[in-house]
Amino acid sequence: MKEQFSQRITCPHCGHHIHIAVDASEGDQDYYEECSACCNPIHLNMHIDYASNKLELHVDSDDEQIF
Ligand SMILES: [Zn+2]
Fold first, then answer.
1. Which of these, 64, 10, 11, lies nearest to 39 by C-alpha position?
2. What would the 3-class secondary structure string for the chain be?
3. Distance between Cα 49 and ligand 1 center (Å)
């Protein structure tokens, strides 16, 4: 299983498609990536399914988070 690759996601704020680098070596992750178009934080939830060797990436737009 590759541990690092890039993934294309859609910004939930502006709909812009951006590429992000994903590092699967750390296991499940919950983090934020800044959109390169609108600069809003995008909540990413990464889950690694070791049983089927798959990586799931969920994009959340929970605007209630304060930074
Ligand atoms: Zn955006």
1. 11
2. CCCEEEEEEECCCCCCEEEEEEEHHHCCEEEEEECCCCCCEEEEEEEEECCCCEEEEEEECCCCCCC
3. 28
The list of the chain residues with pLDDT below 50 reads: 65
Q: Which residues are bridge partners to 25 per DSSP? A: none
Calpha distance 65→60 (Å, rounded): 11
33 alpha carbon – ligand 1 mean position (Å)? 10
| Residues in the chain, overall count | 67
- Residue 53 one-letter amino acid: N
CA 41 to ligand 1 center in whole angstroms? 8
